[in-house]
Design goal:
Largest sheet: 5 strands, parallel
Mean pLDDT: 81
Number of strands: 5
Number of domains: 2
Radius of gyration: 32 Å
Strand content: under 5%
Distance between the termini: 44 Å
Length: 452
């Protein structure tokens, strides 16, 4: 984590802290909270830190509050009393009167936006009864801090930095639920009732023996992105077996070799997946970050209008406030963490292949190119070994059309592995997937209740 002297730690998500100076102990707790937030990568603004010079407080407060990414409202009895309009006079916590009046106005202008930005916080020794009524203390989210430590403010920090503690799991396929047997007598000869056989409630949608949990036998991603690269590595070796002299005597050798190769490719797909995941982080580093995150970065170079639109849609669809350009430049690592969390949530929203077929298609394409690139060296080696073996068979047993064609194919495929399966090809596929993923935001936004 950056130190306090690190310029990158001087700013983060901008936070305006609104509180009632009702006692020295309460104000000390507010300042402790602000210090903790600042030491953990955020940029809180509190009036006590800006008393060194003469200020025009009314204009300054309004300027800071409107520029903030979030507004923390610290609960206390005085704050609720004044915020509920029960101040005893103009001098009764003037600052709180001005700030709560401005917050009411902002909520009236855009309730959805400012409900996300205004965060009621309850410090140790206080209760949620200190939150003003217009902030809905009993029916809206509040942030209760049991102790003023890093652990105590973790939930608040996760929200401020866009790093949720829990994410939903992958959505599985719908089960097939058969209707239950209708009640009624099932008579044996002689009129004796028999018990009806129980009907299974949860079965596979794949024809064949019924199982308890539906499992797709041939998932498109598994076949194209994992199995196909593994088979491409093994196929040249299968070709050598098929042109051996003993294979010409009967089909048994060829059949056994083909089945064995298919089975080996199925097992090899697990290795391919792991290798693909291993090289992925290295590729991201070479590209300057994950393609999905780069489409959200202000510093990445695309027109700011496009980035601004994506941020707007993320806020609308995912209810997340992403960093602005100033915050991102000050703390790029924290900004990337917020972008990563938003992308993860967006992927979960677009897993329905029937609604987002292009996202699924580009995901499969990227998976294929990434995994193929991960086994590029093995693919080239397999082709060269097969070519050498084929040449040896030709020298030993004589040429034949199939053997010459296989030799030329091995050399050509090795060249394909070298020239076609490249890091640039993987990057193009990754960029296409990222673009399609964010294009899905427009549909999600159109389907949102507020859009109808």
């Amino acid at each position: 984590m950056a130190s306090d002297d690190d310029p990158a730690a001087a700013a983060g998500p901008r936070i305006f802290v609104s509180y009632a100076d009702e006692s020295a102990a309460h104000t000390d707790d507010v300042l402790r909270l602000c210090s903790l937030l600042r030491r953990h990568g955020t940029d809180p603004w509190v009036d006590r830190w800006h008393e060194q010079v003469r200020q025009g407080w009314s204009e300054l407060i309004e300027e800071q509050l409107l520029a903030a990414d979030y507004v923390i409202v610290v609960a206390s009895s005085a704050y609720r009393r004044v915020g509920d309009g029960r101040a005893t006079g103009p001098s009764d916590h003037r600052g709180v009167q001005s700030e709560t009046a401005l917050l009411r106005e902002l909520l009236h202008q855009d309730r959805k936006l400012w409900t996300r930005k205004i965060l009621p916080v309850v410090l140790p020794g206080q209760t949620w009864a200190g939150i003003p009524t217009f902030l809905q203390p009993a029916t809206s989210t509040r942030y209760e801090i049991p102790v003023l430590t890093a652990e105590g403010i973790e939930g608040l920090l996760r929200l401020l930095t866009g790093q949720p503690q829990y994410l939903p799991p992958d959505r599985g396929p719908s089960p097939v639920l058969h209707p239950r047997a209708q009640p009624g007598p099932d008579l044996r000869p002689g009129g004796v009732p028999t018990a009806a056989a129980p009907t299974p409630l949860l079965t596979s949608s794949v024809p064949g023996p019924q199982v308890r949990v539906p499992v797709p036998l041939l998932d498109l991603y598994n076949v194209v992105a994992r199995w196909l690269p593994a088979f491409a590595v093994l196929a040249p070796l299968l070709g050598v077996i098929l042109i051996l002299p003993r294979a010409e005597a009967g089909p048994a050798t060829g059949i056994v070799a083909t089945v064995a190769t298919l089975a080996a490719a199925a097992v090899g797909s697990l290795v391919v997946r792991d290798r693909g995941r291993r090289i992925q982080e290295g590729l991201f580093a070479v590209w300057g970050g994950r393609p999905t995150e780069r489409l959200l970065r202000w510093r990445s170079g695309p027109p700011h209008a496009e980035i601004s639109r994506r941020h707007e849609l993320v806020g609308q669809v995912l209810q997340a406030v992403l960093p602005d350009a100033r915050t991102e430049n000050a703390q790029p690592a924290a900004a990337d963490a917020a972008y990563r969390a938003a992308v993860t949530a967006l992927r979960e929203r677009t897993r329905d292949r029937s609604r987002f077929p292009l996202v699924a298609q580009e995901n499969v394409t990227y998976g294929f190119w990434r995994n193929a690139y991960a086994c590029r060296t093995a693919g080239i080696a397999s082709c060269l070994v097969a070519a050498a073996a084929t040449a040896a068979v030709i020298a030993w047993d004589g040429p034949g059309v199939s053997r010459v064609v296989l030799l030329l194919a091995d050399v050509a495929v090795a060249g394909g592995w070298w020239q076609v399966v490249t890091g640039d090809a993987v990057q193009r596929a990754a960029d296409a997937y990222a673009t399609q993923l964010f294009a899905a935001l427009e549909r999600l936004a159109a389907d949102a209740p507020d859009a109808r």
